[in-house]
Specification:
alpha/beta, TIM Barrel, two-stranded antiparallel sheet, 13 strands, globular
């Protein structure tokens, strides 16, 4: 693995473009969450595929799919990021989260499971939390059955964060946003009920919410028990794909509001609701989920609110 470029700042987030040979470039990210110092929370975001075959309408990573990353390539990203900050492998961080969420739908690569099984014993990291976000593609049931066993055996006491990326409760619009055959809400709920154990984190239903995409509390309540599921609403990040498809964010990241009618109705239905605005600077860096620096590098079109940091080329 060779780092060929990077962008960002150590104070918020840094994206690394790495070369696995034969023109196979992927990205990995490290970030902090101001005002928390790195010793309190440090997040790594790694790629699981070379590109992504799903092609979500808001995600710049969904192009030029070139296959799955091996277990060695997955660990190479983590080892690189860890050794930069903690060369002895002792990660003295209260919350050390590794998200399988940069490039690629993780459920399409079974090597992710091998990495998850080995992670707790690879580093001295008492604060380790694994995080996996999925659109739940059809045909990935064996992956999720093995994931359930790994979570129960290796990630006790809330050390695993599981997320379904839904984006809207309108099934027709959801099929448009995420144009791949996938689990129904009923199938997601059934799996989630088996996944959740006492002491676990609630399963997240994530909405990177675009304007005009409905979120109906009554639809959610019919399927997802508020005792076991929570709602996360994030702004739709400014990406090239979102712009091409006419998508704009429901939330304004420059004018964060704790609650509006939608959020109030979800809380009224019994859900814990996390409004995750994050740092606007992450949009400019391109470190947020759904953003992909390589896509910007190949584009001649500027984009408002995103990708404004320079790219540092590495020898």
């Amino acid at each position: 693995m060779r780092v060929v470029a990077s962008t960002g700042t150590d104070d918020i987030a840094r994206v690394y473009i790495v070369d696995f040979g034969d023109g196979r470039l992927v990205e990995c990210v490290e970030s902090v969450q101001p005002p928390l110092p790195r010793r309190e929370k440090w997040v790594l975001i790694i790629s699981t595929l070379h590109g992504c075959p799903v092609g979500c309408l808001m995600c710049d990573a969904g192009h030029a799919y070139q296959g799955k990353l091996s277990k060695a390539e997955l660990f190479a990203q983590i080892d690189f990021l860890v050794k930069k900050r903690f060369p002895d492998g002792i990660i003295a961080v209260d919350k050390f989260k590794i998200q399988f969420a940069r490039m690629g739908e993780p459920a399409l690569n079974t090597e992710v499971l091998a990495v998850l099984a080995e992670l707790p014993g690879r580093y001295r990291a008492p604060g380790l939390i694994a995080s996996l976000s999925t659109v739940a593609p059809a045909g990935t049931e064996p992956f999720f059955e093995k994931l359930l066993a790994i979570k129960n055996g290796a990630y006790p006491d809330g050390r695993f964060q599981f997320q379904f990326s839904i984006h809207t409760t309108d099934e027709t619009l959801r099929d448009k946003l995420v144009p791949v055959k996938k689990w129904s809400f009923a199938e997601m709920a059934s799996y989630g009920e088996r996944f959740y154990r006492g002491g676990d984190r609630k399963i997240t239903l994530n909405f990177a919410l675009a304007a005009g995409m409905p979120v109906a509390p009554d639809t959610l309540v019919r399927h997802f028990d508020p005792d076991h599921f929570l709602i996360k609403i994030t702004p739709l990040n400014p990406t090239h794909r979102a712009g091409e498809n006419g998508l704009t964010s429901y939330l304004d990241p420059y004018l964060p509001e704790d609650e509006d009618a939608l959020i109030g109705s979800l809380r009224g239905a019994g859900y814990d609701v996390l409004v995750s605005i994050g740092e606007v600077e992450e949009n400019r860096i391109g470190s947020n989920c759904g953003q992909y620096v390589l896509a910007h590098m190949s584009s001649q079109r500027p984009i408002h609110g995103g990708y404004s940091y320079g790219i540092d080329r590495h020898a």
